[in-house]
Amino acid sequence: MSKNRKFLFYLAASYNQQEVMRGRAAQIESLSPDYKRHCNWISGAHDHTPKDEAAIIDTNQIRDSDFFILCNDVGSLSPGKHVELGYVLGLPQSLQIYIVGKRVDTESVFYSHPRVTRRFDTWEELIEYLHED
Fold first, then answer.
1. Is 43 helix (H, G, I), strand (E, B) or coil?
2. CA–centroid distance for 82 within its chain
3. What span, in angstroms and rounded, lies between the C-alpha atoms of 63 and 93?
4. 3 state SS of 107
5. All domains of the chain, ordered by start, with CATH?
6. What is the CA angle 12-19-11, rounded to 5?
7. How does pLDDT run across 48-90, given as a tens digit for each residue?
């Protein structure tokens, strides 16, 4: 890691998983002072924000991040994280894309997109990978 640069990360998960994601963000930040969370939604920042404004905030934070982590290992019926993945895949820059969660037959073909940097079956595997980096 660089001593002068922060690496911004965005966690994509269901809005009802805020507490879990706060813990996960803290876990990543504890790996290195270079890692910095860049997803305000997990702190409840959108609770009183109109949805159109929240969408703009989220897409701006995703765009400005260095890596995007889709947390597909926590239960959810919400489509938001999948929409965010589609947004990331459409960005011109080379954002690192990590997907956490075991592969299933019914998953979207976009999880196998060539721009997906790496897949991890478990959160622990991702943490081990980031810790080694």
1. helix
2. 11
3. 9
4. coil
5. 7-132 (3.40.50.450)
6. 15
7. 889 999 999 999 999 999 999 999 887 766 788 889 999 999 9
